[in-house]
Specification:
about 70% helix; mainly alpha; single chain
C-alpha cells in the first residue's frame, strides 16, 4: 500500500510528470513517421533499421531521392528539438537544474529505447546535441563542427557521430570543469555511454572495415 502510494506521489509530482514527458516525447520516432508520410517506406525495414536521420536519408534515397536530404535534415532537427523543448518548458515551471539534467538523459533514453517501438529506437546523437545545447551551447556547437568535418572527410556517419559526441562531451571537462548548478559531469557521461552502446554494431563494422559510407 505504501509502495503504491509512493509511486503515485512520484508520478503526480512536478518532477515525476516532467520525467515521464521527457521519456515519452524523447521516444517519438520522427524518422519513422516522416519516412512513412513522405516516402511511403518503413525505415525500420531498410538499412540499419534505425529511426535516425542517416537511415531516413538511406531509405528515401531509394524511394524519393529528391526530398531525401530535406527529410533527413527535418528528422535531425526534430530529434534535437524534442528533448530541448521539453526541458525549456520545465524551466518555465521552475523545475530544478538537477531534474532538468535528468530529463535530458531520459529524453535520450526515450529516443534510443522508444516506448512506441517496443524499446527499440535510434542512436541518440541528435537528441543529445539538442539537450546539451540547452545547458552547454558551446560544447554542442563544437560537437556539431567535429561531426560535420569528420563526416565530410571520411563519409562515414557513425564515425562522425562518435567523434562528435566524444569531442562535444569531452570538451566540457575543459570548458566547464564544474558543470553549472550541478557541478558533476555524470549526466554527460551517461549520455555518451548510451550512445556508444547503441553504436556497438557500427563499431564492430568499423573495426572490420565493413561500415558503409552514407554521408
Amino acid at each position: 500500500m505504501y509502495l503504491l502510494a509512493g509511486i503515485l506521489d512520484f508520478f503526480t509530482s512536478l518532477n515525476g510528470i516532467f520525467y515521464t514527458l521527457a521519456y515519452l516525447v524523447g521516444g517519438i520516432p520522427f524518422g519513422l513517421l516522416y519516412g512513412k508520410f513522405f516516402g511511403g517506406v518503413n525505415i525500420r525495414e531498410i538499412g540499419s533499421g534505425s529511426i535516425g536521420a542517416t537511415n531516413v536519408l538511406r531509405a528515401l534515397k531509394e524511394s524519393n531521392p529528391k526530398i531525401a536530404k530535406k527529410i533527413a535534415i527535418l528528422t535531425m532537427l526534430s530529434d534535437a528539438l524534442k528533448g530541448a523543448v521539453i526541458i525549456m518548458i520545465a524551466k518555465g515551471f521552475g523545475v530544478s537544474f538537477e531534474a532538468q539534467w535528468m530529463m535530458a538523459v531520459l529524453a535520450i533514453v526515450g529516443h534510443c529505447f522508444s516506448p512506441f517501438l517496443r524499446l527499440e529506437g535510434g542512436k541518440g546523437v541528435a537528441t543529445c546535441v539538442g539537450v546539451v545545447a540547452v545547458f552547454l551551447p558551446l560544447e554542442a556547437v563544437l560537437g556539431l563542427l567535429v561531426w560535420f568535418v569528420v563526416g565530410k572527410l571520411l563519409k562515414i556517419s557513425s564515425l562522425a557521430s562518435l567523434f562528435g559526441v566524444v569531442c562535444g562531451i569531452g570538451s566540457s571537462f575543459f570548458l566547464h570543469p564544474e558543470i553549472p548548478h550541478i557541478t558533476t559531469h555524470t549526466p554527460l557521461v551517461l549520455m555518451m555511454c548510451i550512445i556508444f552502446y547503441k553504436h556497438i554494431p557500427n563499431i564492430v563494422r568499423l573495426i572490420q572495415k565493413k561500415e558503409q559510407k552514407v554521408i
